[in-house]
Amino acid sequence: MELYENIFIARQDLSPTQVETLAEKFAAVIRENGGSVEKIENIGSRTLAYLIKKNRKGHYVLINIAAKPEVIKELERVMRINEDVLRFLTVKVEEHEKAPSSLLKASRYQRDEYDDNARSELSDNEEESGEKFNDRAEKESD
């Protein structure tokens, strides 16, 4: 059996539960045809570089597969038919990474960076509004 990585983008209006169900459906197709799924990694919702079927965002999911080429053909046929899948790509690899994918690391980093920036902006705004309030109170007391 050969090793593959499959990544697909699901529509933005699906809930995370629906995305997991969709990934499990694809995993079942792989298993039914004699392949095995080593890992399913839900990368999360990300902004697309351009509109795809009127969607600005999409849910990214990575599946590590060990299977014969015929299994991959069947998986891609099922993905092509499914309306919830915007895009997919299957690549043959030498070995699967044991660590989380670089996409997952990047999305976590961006999310953490965003949270840190939001917190610092919030604290800056609170300080500014407190200073403005104190200035107004001093003017009114004069």
TrEMBL record:
Q: Where is this region: Disordered?
A: 96-142
HAMAP family tied to this protein: Ribosomal_bS6
SUPFAM superfamilies the record matches: Ribosomal protein S6
* Described purpose of this protein according to its UniProt entry: Binds together with bS18 to 16S ribosomal RNA.
Q: What is this protein called?
A: Small ribosomal subunit protein bS6
Tell me which Gene Ontology terms the entry assigns under biological process: translation
Coiled-coil residues are: none
Keyword terms, alphabetized: Ribonucleoprotein, Ribosomal protein, RNA-binding, rRNA-binding
Family membership, please give it.
Answer: Belongs to the bacterial ribosomal protein bS6 family.
